[in-house]
Design goal:
The chain is of the alpha+beta class. The protein has helices at 8-39, 42-68, 83-112, 119-146, 150-179, 184-211, 217-233, 264-281, 298-301, and strands at 237-245, 250-258, 286-294, 310-312. A four-stranded mixed beta sheet has the order 3-2-1-4, with helices on one face. Strand 2 (250-258), helix 8 and strand 3 (286-294) form a beta-alpha-beta unit.
Length: 314
Amino acid sequence: MEVVARTDADRVALMWAMNLSLVVGLVMFVMKVGAYLLTGSAAILSDAAESVVHVAAVCFAAFSLRLSYRPADEDHLYGHAKIAFFSAGFEGAMIMLAAAYIIFVSIQKWVGGLELENLGFGTALTGAAAAINGGLGAYLIWLGRRKRSLILEANGKHVLTDCWTSTAVLVGLGLVWLTGWLPFDPICGILMACNILVSGWGLVGSAFAGLMDRADPGVMGRLREILGRECAARNVGYHGLRHRNLGDAHWVEVHLLFPAGLSLSEAHRLATAIEWVIEGSLEPRAYVTSHLECASDHGELHPDEPPGGIASGP
């Protein structure tokens, strides 16, 4: 769930982390290309190819993060934060594309003939890249979760994918060096590609869930808990509870049922109090819209409402 930072300090921290990811990604790409030119390793070439995809994905993620801060306007009444789901989906698709390319290159190299050179220096460059990406990826995921930024967390997972790619390369080259059997190089490349396919598919899945407004069972359970408690305390019923993830907040809609004879002013006051409790209880934040109804004639006005639709009542 992407949460647009609510303070300037949060925004600066997220943008700094994203820019750091881009700079490091470019440096890692140069290192990996140099390692491939030195060794001719299929696994290192695959690792370098994944870095190309990573840099492209980080550029899109940086754009998405900036766009998510734009306030609502006449064309986007709910703001721009849902770009987070597009960003996560794009990053996941890029990871999967990189994995497919790695598998293709590894098989092509294996069939066409294997030849490795300068394994020592090439392995050192790859090892350095793995260590740097491992630290950066862990930091991005930590910060993304702390600030509840899906964009940054997805980018961190992609950086970690780059780290695992390099690790697999190191394993493959190490086995080649120890045994002298060259096919270990493309085999490790293929295994590593299959592993990162899972990571990419997970990001695509989370993006699809957000764009399709899939209900979050945890959020729904929390809402029912709050409404059950607050409505019972005020002798109010509710039904028609719905929620969706806007990208930077929850949007909650609920129908509140009030006893007959209660003034509109008093009903509105009670509804507002319930809305405030919900807004203050959900993380990172919530927008609540309630619809006021009279419990006594609700069945007459809404005959199609299922009997179980009213979760609590006066």
